[in-house]
UniProtKB/TrEMBL annotation:
PANTHER family xrefs: THIOL:DISULFIDE INTERCHANGE PROTEIN DSBE
Listed name of the protein: TlpA family protein disulfide reductase
A GO-annotated cellular component: cell envelope
Any single GO BP term: cytochrome complex assembly
Organism listed in the record: Bizionia saleffrena
PROSITE patterns (UniProt xref): PROKAR_LIPOPROTEIN, THIOREDOXIN_2
Subcellular location: Cell envelope
One Pfam family this sequence matches: Redoxin
Amino acid sequence: MRNLILIALVSLMVSCNKEVPKKDYAVLYGTVENPNDSINLRLFNPVSSKSVIIDVDENGNFRDTLKLENPVNYNTVYDKVFEVYLQNDMDLNMSFDASNIQETLTFKGKGAEENNFIKFKTGHLSSLFGKDYKEYLGAEETDFNVRTDAFMTTFYATLDNKEALLDSTFVADEKKKIEEFKTGMVAQHEQQLEINSKLGKGLPSPEFTDYVNYKGGTSSLSDFKGSYVYIDVWATWCVPCIYEMPYLAKVEEAFKDKNITFLSISVDNQKDKAKWRKMIETKALDGVQLLADNATESKFMTDYYIFGIPRFILLDKEGNIVSYDAPRPSEEGLKDLFNSLDI
């Protein structure tokens, strides 16, 4: 009998010490306070460009199981965009108030430590960039280096302090990413200084000539001297550009009696001219509508360092630059800027 008891105890100890296999999936669940009935949670993988849509019920509850090939830093969209990190074997509870996501976003369960670090990093980046990231990138060399080095020091100190609580793969990836970030910031700093030297406030704007005009003939930038010019660089295939159109229409209406020209330049290919014309008609676009001569490779675009659209540019009555990257029509700051000028 004693032998049987001993065998049973040994078996129990072996079973207790046996490592539980990791799950080959992640679970994400939680609650949205003040949910919007028309919105579900969207997880976008920027590496694969694939999305996962998670239903949010009328009470704001959601739950889904995701089988992941690799850990993923998802751009998570619920009206606003924030980051969520997931890897297999996580059981992550996420909650937030839809009216103020960044301030109320909380994580619990397996994976909370990693996501709380991501949340810290996001806030830390916001502090580094300030209200205008171009001011940081265009800072004098010493100031730029001091701010960047202080950011890196705090990042590493926080990561080291949390390392024992974090997944080792996550830690390694974060260290790799932050070094790539610093390299990228140094390169962007050099480019921003170059941009500032060529596109600074008060400098003459780069020119374009003989762009196709929707109403007939061609137009050049010099044709619009004598009025302020608000330039919208867009394309029919650009979703964020289309999003701005209703806001632009409202701004045009608000300033229709002022000395300002609203000039839209499409960077669609010449072969898509019919598509460009159709969208102008379908959307009832107002203002001056032009088609660039060489799509995104047009010299005017490269002269303005336009790597993504929409881009908005504001020029004064003499054709000099007020802002090479002006506020979008959807931003309140645009009307404030217009009202500050003698338009």
